[in-house]
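Lecture notes, unit on protein representations.

Consider one protein chain, 82 amino acids long.
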Amino acid sequence: MDALTSASLGARRNEDIALDLLKFVAATAGVGRPAVASTGFSGAAGAKPEENVTQLLELYSRCLKAVEGKGAAPGSGLGAGQ
């Protein structure tokens, strides 16, 4: 039973670390935030909430893979040597 408990704690720990990494990357890069119009500028409409959620979920899966040591897809910006 101890092996099962430690295995579940290890998996949960990776998920927590990946979530913290997601929060950091999202805050730093402004991922998932609606576009804010500035005075005198009317850019394209911001992303829909569904698109923001999809983007955050994809980023979380990339963070989890990086934490688990599985690496990320080439050119994704997450992985060894980046």
